[in-house]
Every structure is written in C-alpha cells, then in structure tokens.
Automatic annotation (TrEMBL):
Transmembrane segments: none annotated. The gene is LOC115187707. This is Glyoxylate reductase/hydroxypyruvate reductase. Residues 53-347 form the D-isomer specific 2-hydroxyacid dehydrogenase catalytic domain. Residues 138-316 form the D-isomer specific 2-hydroxyacid dehydrogenase NAD-binding domain.
C-alpha cells in the first residue's frame, strides 16, 4: 500500500514542486503540517519559500493520504482559521508535535487548554495584522456608504441606463462612527476615521483614556448609547463566550434606520439570522461583513440575496505585505519552540 501511495504525487502540493510521501518522510528539515491556501485557509504558494527555508511542508491533503507514516514527522502545525481542525484526534495522531502556530491574532478556533495538555504550545501573530485589518474595515465602510460595489457592477452592465436610485450613497465625512472593541485594531480604525472628520464613539470593557485622547474619541460605557447614536457601527471585538452574538435583534433595533453595521471581527459576534431580518425589514440601512458563519458563506445563503450587504470571505489580513510578515512571524515562533526557546508570541489562557 505504502509503495502505491509513494508513487502518487502529492495532490494540491504547491510547495517546492511535488514530492512523494517517502521523500517527505526523508526530509532533513523539520516537518510542519499546513493547509494549502483558500481565501483564509493556509500557506499561499508565494509565501511557501519563506517557510521552506527552515521546514518541509506536509500539506494536510498529503497527510491524509498516509497519516500513519507521516504523523511522526510533524513537529509543528500551521493553521489559518479552522480550515485545518486541530482537535483531540489530530493531537493524538502527532506524537512529536511541539507547537501549533496560528496565522492571525484571533485564536477562538483553537482549544488552547486541550492543545497545551499534550505539552504543545500555541502561538499567534499579533500586532502585524492590525493595519491591514483596520484598512479593510475602512474599505468596507466606504464601499458600503458610497455603493462602490454597485457602481462597479453598473459600469460593467449599464446598457446606457441611468444610475439607479439605489446607487445613492451616504457621507462618511462628518458621520458618527461607533467602534465596539478598542483593542489594537479598533484603535487603528479610530486613527483612520479621524482625518475623515468623523465623530468617534467607542465601547470597550475598559476605558482607554490614552487612546481616546489621541483620536478624540468618546467612551460609551453603555453599548446602547453607541448603537443609538452611530451612523456606522464597526465591530472589532475578539470572539469569546462573552461576545458571541453580542449584536442580536435587540441591538440591531437600537441602531438608526440609516445606519450601517460593519463586522471585521468574527462572524459569530453578530447573530446572522437577526441581521438578515433587520436588513430585510430595513431596521438598519446596510451591512458590510468581512466575517460570517460559516466561512465562506454557502452559495444561496439569505444574506447573499440582499441588496444592502457586502460580504467578503475573511480577507482582513489578505495583503502581500501583511501575509509575508505573518508567515515570517509564524516561522520565528516555530523555530523558537523547536530550538527549545520561549517563542515571542505564545498564547496563554
Ligand atoms: O485574527 C486575525 O488576525 C484575522 O482575522 C485573521 O484570522
């Protein structure tokens, strides 16, 4: 059987050319297990050389072909989102695993105590994702406000018809932005909103006086105040049991009928069914989402049928520069652990 499998070229393998399974087993560099790339699924071909300077990549698809022979080779697992599920079964199958490295800051998809119970560390890539994610938040706000996606489609298909009434946007300049979650990314959003002459409110567990002063933001201890007063509500919190479905029917009903909800955190922070209903009934004007559940959203999902929604496939960190730095940081963390050193970005619970 192994003989047969070894004759197979590894499928979907875009790293350093195709290798047989026995070649993978005989690699001198330590092996990492990783998924290949979807919108948010794994190592992109163009970043593979950064990883391959130090590691041999075993694509998850190849691993599944011959788990028995490959599992002992794996020293590190690289994950992006939940494309590769790091569950108890996977952990049990990797006896020499030392570290799970997450590309991105949010680790809500990882059961850290369970992973740690195998003597395996978890690392992520904080800081380096902040600017790209904040940029995308601004992009979504501007695109939704000024109907950029609609304008694009009109330009391609107009047949000399007039611009429809529905293409009329709303101003961002001078509008009120409510930021829910003034962490590093929330703060970067506020900094970008300031030169747009936006009035900025924020809600956060703890008041952030220094950040508040730096961007001229006003603290709303009560999220209700922020929801009632904002023209744009941007959700930037981490997903946790406390923030799951933080924005539901009740919260949407508090928002202005002219307001827009932007979510760049995690899909589950917003009750998606309640959002569909709010958008259908025009309880709010529009939504612009980088994150949904599931991801990507299935074709034909009711959200996708709505004219007042922009949906992206979780692309907050999806830029050449940011991905490059993220992958480098993942490598640095993995090398530290495998070298017996404390990694710079260990996530502890
Ligand atoms: O958590 C993050 O950093 C981004 O959402 C990518 O997962």
């Amino acid at each position: 059987m192994l003989h047969l499998i070894n004759r197979l070229k590894t499928p979907l393998l875009s790293f350093g050319g195709t290798r047989t399974i026995s070649q993978l087993i005989n690699m001198e560099k330590p092996c990492i297990l990783a998924t290949t790339f979807g919108a948010h699924g794994g190592i992109n071909k163009c970043f593979a050389p950064v990883v391959e300077k130090h590691f041999t990549i075993i694509p998850y698809e190849t691993f599944l072909l011959d788990q028995k022979n490959l599992s002992e080779q794996v020293k590190a697992v690289f994950v992006w989102g939940s494309a590769l599920k790091v569950d108890r079964d996977l952990m049990q199958s990797l006896p020499n695993l030392k570290v799970v490295v997450n590309g991105g800051v949010g680790v809500d998809h990882l059961d850290i105590p369970m992973i740690n119970s195998f003597g395996v560390k978890v690392c992520n890539t904080p800081h380096v994702v902040d600017n790209a994610t904040a940029d995308l938040g601004m992009g979504l706000m501007l695109a939704s406000a000024r109907k950029i996606v609609e304008g694009h489609h009109y330009s391609l298909t107009h047949n000399n018809e007039d611009l429809p009434e529905s293409s009329m946007g709303v101003d961002v300049c001078g509008a009120t932005l409510g930021i829910i979650g003034m962490g590093r990314i929330g703060y970067k959003v506020a900094r970008r909103a300031q030169p747009f002459d936006m009035k900025i409110f924020y809600h956060n567990r703890n008041r952030r006086k220094e950040e508040e002063r730096a961007v001229g933001a006003m603290y709303c201890a009560n999220m209700e105040d922020l929801l009632q007063q904002s023209d744009f509500v941007m959700v930037v919190v981490n997903l946790s049991p406390a923030t799951q479905k933080l924005i539901g029917a009740k919260e949407l009903a508090m928002m202005k009928p002219t307001s827009t909800l932007i979510n760049i955190s995690r899909g589950l922070v917003v009750d998606q069914d309640a959002l569909v209903e709010a958008l259908q009934k025009k309880v709010i004007r529009a939504a612009a989402l980088d994150v949904t559940y599931p991801e990507p959203l299935p074709i034909g999902h009711p959200l996708a049928a709505l004219p007042n929604v922009i949906i992206l496939p979780h692309m907050g960190t999806h830029s050449v520069e940011t991905m490059q730095i993220m992958v480098e940081k993942m490598v640095t963390n993995a090398l530290a652990v495998l070298g017996g050193n404390q990694p710079p970005d260990e996530v502890k619970v």
